[in-house]
Amino acid sequence: MGYPLSEMEQKIWEEFIKGWQIPEIRLPRRVLSSPFEAIQLHTFVDASTSAYAAAVYLRSESKHRFQANLIFSKNRLKPRKGGKTLTIPRMELIAILIGVRATDYVQKELKLPVSQIHIWSDSQIALSWVKSPTIPAHVCPEEIR
One GO MF term, please (predicted)? Predict the structure, then answer.
């Protein structure tokens, strides 16, 4: 952290840590009802003036009953420094990108038959950019195009 300890403080700290007995804690998490009939992934993305995020939900159907569980999420703070100014629409576009990547990751890791995938965003500007055949260079980073 940038605060060096004296040799004596270091020894005291190491002895203190040795005395910790932290038990392993397991929290079982049931994600799917068995047997399931259909699985969908719904990813919600959003951005603000200071951050952007994505949350992936797994929606399952079993005997005409539906269940949805948060399965994965990712968020990032807006970079303080950098070349281009990140407007909210540009951050919304980046949120869509991390949402797509998160959804792809979840789908690969689950190894389950996913019948539908939905990415949800409230940004009409970012959605229009995604729908356009090419995104202008001044709008987004190279990795999105």
Answer: nucleic acid binding
Indicate the pTM of the whole model: 0.71
Q: For residue 57, report the phi and psi dihedrals to the nearest 5 degrees.
A: -110, 140
Q: If we measure between CA atoms, which residue out of 104, 89, 91 comes closest to residue 56?
A: 104
- What is the tally of helices (H) and strands (E) in the chain? 3, 4
Instruction: Return the structure tokens found at 100.
Output: 């797509």
Residue 96 lies in a domain: yes
Residue 139 lies in a domain: no
Mean pLDDT for each 10-residue chunk of the chain (145 residues)? 82 86 78 79 95 95 86 90 77 93 94 93 87 71 55
Cα–Cα distance, 77 to 94 (Å, whole number): 12
Structural domains of the chain, count: 1
